[in-house]
Amino acid sequence: MAMDRRALLRTATASGAALALGEAAARPALAAPGGFPDYTYQRTLLRPEDLAYNPTGEIIFPCIRGVYDKLPDPLGRYYLYYAPHDAPGGICLAYGDSLEGPFTEHPGNPIVSNNWQPHYSVSHVSSPHVMWHAGLRELWLYFHGENTTTRLARSRDGINFTYDSVVLSTAMLPAGTTETSYARVFRHDLPARAAAYVILFMRNTTANHRDIGWGWSADGRKWTIDPKPLIDHAAVGAVNVGGPHLLTRDGSAYVVCNTDKESGGDILITEVGNDFTRRDHLGVFYNSRATAPENGRAASPSFGTDHGVPYMVYEAGERLSGAIAVARG
User: Fold this and answer.
1) Where is the signal peptide (predicted)?
2) b/e per residue, 269-303, with b = 16+ CB within 10 A?
3) pLDDT tens digit string along 251-295?
């Protein structure tokens, strides 16, 4: 009998040897690869039905940022960015004083819409990732709209943004690329490439299997993109992978990403090394639970620390019908 995809993902290792995880499917992993915390679901933070701005009944792609030590007069200690995906989308903000909530929806949502003249008019904007640029003391917002294009906007207060530029598009990758979206950008030095920033994103092609792409930049605006996937869906036994995030520990770098529900719905981890030359697939980083709100899918993680305690904020539930949840390490 053929092994199902969830079982395949839980047996994948860098060498291809089996790693039996047994009954861990319905609960958090007993040991997180790479020495990272074992995250355990705590509570749901945002539900579409509770939000005033709710054009499509769905929200995705959270990005959590501590702003208490960065902004002069923030609305709360933490800003949580998120968005609907389907048209018209819209980049949204909620704020709170604890990573375990509660979070208050900003009354001005969406803070970035799908029509920003004279810069663009698109069907939707979504997938907000906000990076703190320490040198300029600005919050840099990367977001997509359409799925072929990732854009950058900049802000001094995390609410009012100034449009900057297109930073990534399908035109920057080989022919046949159809999507370059769901990007996250991180401060990470790559001396051999004269780079100070790394971009991770979901890429799709006419073959309709989603992989994780990557690139590097000296300034976070102009990028060199590797034409080859950083994480190939087939290498981890998945149909599609997405929602990448960079983590670092003990002098090495790791990329976590989610699989689709058909492939198990879990979050996987790959060690790429501090110079991004490794491709060691370590298996399951976080097991999605069979019970609500995850219902077999956890995705698009974002990470933060509250008074020294690590947290993961993520999509919980089936795509476009889930919520934003938080797990504690």
Assistant:
1) 1-31
2) bbbbebebeebbbbbbbbbbbeeebbbbbbbbbbb
3) 999 999 999 999 999 999 999 999 999 999 999 999 999 999 999
